[in-house]
Model the fold of this input.
Amino acid sequence: MHQLNKTQADILQNILTNKSGFFTNAKSFYIHGKTGCGKTTILEKFVLESQSKKILFMHFHDYLLDITKLLHKNPLKTVAKEIAKNVDFICFDEFFVESIADAKILYDIFFELIKVGVSIILTSNFAPEELYNDGFNRQIMFPLFSDFLNTKMEICHIKNSPDFRTTSDFTEFQICFPTVLEFENHFKTSVSLQNEALKIDQNHTAQISGRFENGCVIDYNSFFKTHTSVKDFRKIARTFTHVHVENMQQFSHNNEDEAIRFRNFIDILYARGTIFSCSSIQNIRVFSEEMLKNIKFKRCESRLTEMETVQYIFSENKEIKRKMTISSASFFEGISKKLAK
Done:
């Protein structure tokens, strides 16, 4: 983790000293700023330094999947009360909204969680009023939703901060290789290439192409050119600590669907501190200049830049991040089982 500047340190201190009292609940926070400004680092430091042990830290992809599954089977108020029994703070990294349906679910559950005393801490590349910009039927829900965020949360804007991943004095570590053999030699591992159907849930599998110590190989063509989803990506990330992609490709608007899948995949790997490497390309600059005008692709390239550094590959913080995401998975599985009784 990089050192915080004054703005970042002030935000962290504000969150750390935020306490609930007899008559008041702890405040909620919405932290936003451009790619690489230190939002995720603030969250991670809060989790490590907070005196509360009842903190749930999760990537927003995970939350949408888990909370939607719970709400299919249980009333909203019941779910919120059950969460509040076990959690003081929920930290969501990379908050975004991609549909009106998601906005409605998020508004309802956030409203209930804050009502029962749970403090919510969000990070996002966007200010509340910028979420789902130009989205279909945005006017139906977003005036209400953005007003709710601005009213119920303390808005923290990290301004004029450079991307620390490109300005920090990181030491580069090779993660792109012409062949799998060169990958094996570099990481001092042995790959067993054999197609395997990895079980995702009772009705679905995803194909991996091989295994090595604590890691797996996936083939770009059989993985990103098919209809894989966030469910597949998080199963891979929860199962392996290193993922190597064979036949990696460059992205343009001609294969944008594949680029979106890859972007979501990297987001989930990064959230868990998973090591990423690939074969068949010379460097990790995989997005066209035109695509990098989109903040989500820009964020992905920024993360890939950090993921090819010694500081990321050998970071002790990776284990902390993995433990946090594993505990979030166990948390929602536990609630689901309890409510099913």
User: Anything to note?
Assistant: Residues 174-308 form one domain. The mean pLDDT is 87. The CA atoms of residues 12 and 93 lie 15 Å apart. The chain has 14 helices and eleven strands.
